[in-house]
Structures
1.
Amino acid sequence: MKHASLIVALVAAGCQLTGEKNRCVTQADCLDGYTCTAAGTCELPTTSCTPLTCDGHCGMIDDHCGGTLACGACPDHCTNQVQDPSETDLDCGGDCEPCGTGLHCAMTSDCLNGTCDGDTCRAGTWSTVAPMPTPRSELAAVAGTDGRISVIGGHGASGAGHVVEIYDPGADSWTTGAQMPTARGDLAAVLGSDGKIYAIGGDYASVSDPGASIVAEVYDPVMNMWQSLPSLPVGRYALAAAVDASGTLYAIGGYDGTTAHELGSVATLHPGDPSGTTRADARTTARSEHVAAPTPDGRIYALGVEGQIAGSELAALEYYQPGIAGWHTATPLPTTRKMLAAAVLGSHLYALGGNRWVGSSMSYTRVVEVYDTTTHAWSQVTSLPSGRYGHAAVALGGKIYVVGGRREAGDATTGIVEVFTP
């Protein structure tokens, strides 16, 4: 009788106990690490991985694809507490056992895990998946409750501002969603508590026309339909957005093209309300070209910024705790930049890529830095394969998917999708 009750409970939860695949209705029906695909099955995300070889190393080494290799006994010099010419760091790398995180390396096989990034072993690896069909930058991306990633709007070829393309990690494939009614780039988007995707702000037209910067629209992934929402109180271009545990949406900062200045104000909207509200507790630092992300402790962090002086970047990291008035400063970013992307895995906030001015030239950055919200300290993990800015990042299934933007390799708008595995 107990077995029968268990079967009834599993079927009710969306699992099929017969056949080759587990059936699902929502992402909650799948085990951690699996994705509920559009076909209604729980699948492992598809990523390519080429195992490492011993390549002259000794001992047991990680093949960086989930396995290990037995590479024989190590030479005596690997334990002499001296960095010999064949070693990349003290008693490790080269023909010795691999080095730990933070130690020197010449190639990835010199590292116990992670990647040889420059000349340092850093945590995490990058892989690629199916490219986005429409290359674009200054776009928005959101992970839905169905385990798929919706990529919305952006700048690129003609018509790119309307485009909605949806990536299914389980099938490693893209489909096209209903076009966004108002074409725009430099927007922000968030997943609401109702499972719908809210697209907020975007390009302004001129000093006398706010254009798309006051527009808010909502996309229903189930119905594949868009609906207009009340306009923002103030136009916001290159803004950030977030949603809190109560379902309140936040439109943070941005650039007001009709008054030609960065905004420190924050507008809020709760799904179903007839209009948005500008909050009294403005940001400490007016900013645009930045990103925001909520963390499990309930805080909303904002990072990366083009400041009030054109061409300047600030390292400020600020957070807002819903229910407590005002914004608060936290440990600033080690690498100052704007037009970056951010994503959260557990208690860790990742800041990925971006650009900054170096003299009179714009410089891409590959840097990926991680803020631990429990220790309030930054660290560095494996860099992006190529510098990138104007991109979006989405955390899904314990990984981070980076889509769109302009990529330093080729210096052009890209459709390449790169996946970070911690």
2.
Amino acid sequence: MTAASSSVINEVLNRIEKLESELISVTSTLIRFQTISPPSNTLECAEYVKSYFEDAGLEVSLHAKEKEKVNVHARVPGESGKTIIWLGHLDVVPAGMREKWRYDPFSGAVEGERIYGRGASDMKGSCAAAMIAAKVLSEVDKKDHATVDFWFTCDEEVGSPNGTRWLVEKGLIRGDACLVGDSLSKSPREPYIDVGCKGYLRLRLKAFGKTAHGSMPFYGDNAIDKLLLAVKNVKKIGDYQLKLPAELENSIKSSINYLLKNRDLTEEQENAIKRAFHYPTVSLTIISGGIKVNVIPDYAEASFDIRITPGVNPQTIAEKIHELIGNFKASEIEAEILNLESGYYERWDSDFALSLRRAVEIAVNMPPKPKILLGATDAIPIKKSLGIPCLGFGAGIEELAHAPNEYVTVEGLISAAKVYAILPLLF
């Protein structure tokens, strides 16, 4: 880092600290827009984001596949020859039962160092931090930083069919690296960078039998009994040890240590966490069957959500599942792969990772650690389509996402805004 660049970075950091009140206000305002997915109506919220950027003198545009499902793009041009994509989403999950909330979930209430509301941590806080960062970065000489395309999308919580996936298909999102703001940690004072996320396989088992009176089961063929046997076999995939790239082991170890920091874990939970990356996780999430208590069921089905560490092709797991239920006749059990998608990971020592690590350490005064997400983010379609490095860092608190009394801290907001603003000066 040159003396001049150190000076510019310090100016950016100081400028963000001076905008703390504005950052809190923008976060609170974003929360007040009820951008629940579904239906993912982000129109009014997107118009607010657009007006904020216009007031700051930025180039901004709206993009929509469907009228009310609106995505926002703002560009801060630079002259380094590189473009960073900052990616976040404006939609939120439903608030749930109002009586479980301390404040109205869409009030954006501010209490001390916390801003409460649905989406505060996931991820309107990070969106607000990006808006402030874009404003501050636009005040910096273009020759000192990369171009940044800030994208605020409409429907990440329901799979992004009108958001990131559509934008990528249309060729609207382009760049050399992607920073995903949809990232959570336990505390802004212990920073983590998301270096990848798991892939998934969604499976439905269908069992077929023959109805009979419940008092005469010997005349029927119980589909639920067959299903339970098949379910037991599918769960054995959780004991299939994955063949993972050796370069992933340090990130896996760091991820396990991160998860083990959770409070009040039982021994069983700790053991499950220690296995969660070297083996698939298998969750039986839906099961149904039968039509009446005194009728032997002729049909039953079960659905699984199976998560697979990056570096492993989910298709190999699908093949193993078919082997595990191979003893059943096709007329008795059908296994349907609903969808599958590979995860991804980045090297901790890549150029982009080193730049982000430096930005985080400067902003937080603490070196970050890597972690691999158990779930998925919009980084997957970006990685799949563009093949560029994708890393995650955000303001949110993990245990609060999708929970009652969700909030984001002012400290977390400031840290994220600083990282988003100085990364383009370092990459």
